[in-house]
Amino acid sequence: MRIEVKVVCRELDCGNPVSESRVLVEYRRRGVTLYRCSGDESSIRQCVIIGPGYCFGGYYHHVICSESVRLVDGAGLCSGRVEVKSNQSWASVCEADFDRQDAEVVCREFGCGAPAALQGGLYGEGEGQTWDKEFQCKGKESLLLDCDTSDRKHKTCLPGNAVGLTCSEPDDVRLVGGGSRCAGGVEWYDQGEWRTVGADDWDVAAVVCRQLGCGSTVSVLPGNTTRGFRVYCSGSEPSLRECRRMYDLHPGLTVICSDLLVQPDIFLTDPMGGVSRGHQGPEMFRGYNFTITCSTQPQYPGGSFLLTFTGSNRTQIQPAVNHSAAFLFPAADDSHQGNYSCVYDNYVFSHNFSSESELLSLTITASPLPAFIIRHVVVLLILLTTITTSYLYYKPTRRQKRVNRVSSMDLYVNAMEMVSLSSRAEAGPGEERAAQGTE
Asked: Could you please report the per-residue DSSP string of 343-369?
């Protein structure tokens, strides 16, 4: 988005620029060329103007302004205090009447990325009135004024509550062909297609690296194409679309930014099971060996990993093998407690680059052996209790079975004696004596 477009929308009191496009100009049509604006002018007459004169070919700019909503006093087109046009004047919006879904609609309307910050008083207080409605956006609307509104729940808006909004910069710039999102030829998404950007200075490169979140500029080289549309930046713009652009062709631009390497990962492993997870990070038991591994995504071959330890000045370095390196510690003790980080270094594009991981906070604790013994003693006590209970339960049962067996034998003997007596009673005296003689 050209700075001149912002000045035009401001002069017409039409809010912020939403989009611009180029339209083929009629041959010999009268017009002027806005050569340079700073963006703070209240009228295009304050810019450097070439003309009036005739256009003998080329394009003129077609501009769409937001008309009824704007961001004021921000650092660029994607940040500022939210104001809505009401009765031909601009009114601030109270923080209580504006939420993230409303912010998503505003950021989308201005061609910016997702909301990054939403806070009352972030960009000062408006001088006029306060918007008297509460927005009820669902987050999918194209324009803020397409959203439903309701009466405000809060009758007043306290000072410091005029809502400020910061949207992320649009995802309309990329670097291609360099093996990283922070190195390569500059392309800009313009009117539905990715087009090569042509420039010959570090100011454009500085804006590109800033917009992509890639740090500062390391190198600027000619690109592989001569068909890039020309861009002019002062170097302070938050995004490339706030620079001036012309549609004459210019050699392409290759940019290398300082944050070329992605952030490496760091993690701890132990083959003996001596690590546990604490509230502040991993906890390692004394005497157990452990390994700290550094790894990175496969961007460029080679490189090395430096393991730094904040508890002392000790460092270890290993070459990157398959984009990783493992640092072995034979036995953990109190001297190993502290914060570790991995620094990945590599030499590419004729420059040294480095990237550091997040901190790994390691705590050394007492050996788990006493807990191990207590755990096993508890298990043995439970087992012994179970055996004793079973023995006490089954012992009377066996005794009762023996009593039952003795009682059954007595009954059997008594029954046999009764049968014998009965038989003798039924026999005669002779038979009884014969029987006795037999005996």
From this structure: EEEEEETTEEEEEE---EEEEEE--SH
User: Quick one: CA dihedral 414, 417, 422, 423, positive or negative?
Assistant: positive
Distance CA 55, CA 59 (A): 9
The Cα–Cα gap between 221 and 237 comes to: 21
**pLDDT at residue 32, as a whole number:** 64
Query: In angstroms, rounded to a whole number, what is the distance separating the alpha carbons of residues 143 and 105?
Result: 6
Q: Both tokens of residue 350?
A: 């004729």
Tell me the CB-side half-sphere exposure of residue 28, using CA atoms within 13 A: 0
Is there a contact between 8 and 1 (Cβ–Cβ < 8 Å)? Answer: no
Tokens of 53: 């004169």
408 — phi, psi (to 5°)? -65, -40
User: CA separation (Å) from 104 to 19, 94, 121, 139, 147?
Assistant: 17, 16, 19, 6, 12
* Angle, alpha carbons 298-211-195 (nearest 5°): 85
Backbone angles phi, psi at 85, to 5 degrees: -80, 125
Which residues, other chains included, contact 59 with Cβ-Cβ below 8 Å and sequence gap of 6+?
22, 23, 24, 25, 247
Q: Roughly how many angstroms between the first and final C-alpha of the chain, as a whole number?
A: 137
Nearest to 143 by CA among 61, 239, 241, 67: 67
What is the pTM (predicted TM-score) of this model?
0.65
List the one residue out of 118, 107, 125, 128 whose CA is nearest residue 162.
125
The better pLDDT of the pair 436, 142 is held by 142
Amino acid at 243: C
Residues in the chain: 439
Q: How far apart are CA 261 and CA 296, in angstroms?
A: 9
Beta bridge partners of 308: 315, 341
- The tens digit of pLDDT for each residue in 115-159 reads 999 998 899 887 778 888 899 999 889 889 899 998 887 677 888
Q: Is beta strand 228-232 parallel, antiparallel or unpaired with respect to 193-198?
A: parallel
Residue keyed to tokens 């036995």: 331
Could you tell me which residues are beta bridge partners of residue 383? Answer: none
Q: What is the dihedral of CA 163, 168, 172, 174, to 10 degrees?
A: 160
Distance CA 176, CA 100 (A): 33
Q: For residues 290 and 40, what is the distance between their CA atoms, to the nearest angstrom?
A: 59
DSSP secondary structure code for residue 301 in this structure: S
Q: Quote the CA–CA distance of 175 and 153 in Å, as a whole number.
A: 48
The whole-number average pLDDT for the span 195-223 is 90
* 427: confidence class by pLDDT, cuts 50, 70, 90: very low
